[in-house]
Amino acid sequence: MALDQLSATFAALSDPTRRAILARLLEGEASVAELAEPFQMTTRAVSKHIGVLEAAGLVTRGRDAQRRPSRIRAEPLVDVDMWLQGYRRLWISRFQQLDERLAKLQMEGRTGDRE
Amino acid sequence: MALDQLSATFAALSDPTRRAILARLLEGEASVAELAEPFQMTTRAVSKHIGVLEAAGLVTRGRDAQRRPSRIRAEPLVDVDMWLQGYRRLWISRFQQLDERLAKLQMEGRTGDRE
C-alpha cells in the first residue's frame, strides 16, 4: 500500500529507536556506525531504521561513499506541526474550561469562608 | 510488544481514515454509525479504527449502551506537540538561513543594477 506522506511520517515516528536517532541527528549529521554506538545495536538494525526514516523523508544520506552521513530533514515535521494546528483549539478550549471551573471553585471557597 | 504512549499515538495517527475520524470528532462526539456514514465503511471497520484510537488514548467511549459515542481526547496530542517542540528550532533556524540567503541575493541584485 502506498502511504500518503503524513501517514508515512507518523509511521516512521511510531518507534522509540527511530525517534532517538532523530534526536541524535538534531545535534548534527552522523554515519551509521556513529548512530549504532550509543544504541548498542548492530549497524544492520540501525541501517534499517534509517531506511524507514529516509523513505518518510525525515532523513537524507550524504554522497560520501564511505560514511554516507545521515542528516535530519525538517519538512515532514513542519507538516505534522501544521496538521496539529487544527487540534490546538481543542486543548486550549479544554484548558480554559478547566481554568473557569477552578476559578468558580475558588470563588465558592471564599464565599464559604465569609459565611 | 507493549508500545510506549508516544509510539502508540504516532502509530494510531499513521492512518488517513483514523485521522479523518479524529477530524470528525473535533466537531463533536459521534456514534459508530454516525462515523461510518461519511466514510462509506462498514460499522465493523470503523469500530476497529476506533479501537486503535481508544487504545492510544485519543478517543474515549460514552457509557450510553446504545450509542457509545466516541469523544476525542486532547492529552496524547499535547504530548505530540511537546515532542515536536524540540524540533522547532531546527526549521526555524533553516528558515532563517534561507531568509539570509535571499536577502543577500537581493542585495547582490541591487548592486548589479547600479553598475
UniProtKB/TrEMBL annotation, chains A, B:
InterPro entries: ArsR-like_HTH, HTH_ArsR_DNA-bd_dom, WH-like_DNA-bd_sf, WH_DNA-bd_sf
Superkingdom as given in the UniProt entry: Bacteria
One Pfam match: HTH_20
HTH arsR-type domain boundaries: 1-92
Coiled-coil regions listed in the entry: none
Gene3D superfamilies, alphabetized: Winged helix-like DNA-binding domain superfamily/Winged helix DNA-binding domain
Protein name: Transcriptional regulator
Organism of origin: Devosia nitrariae
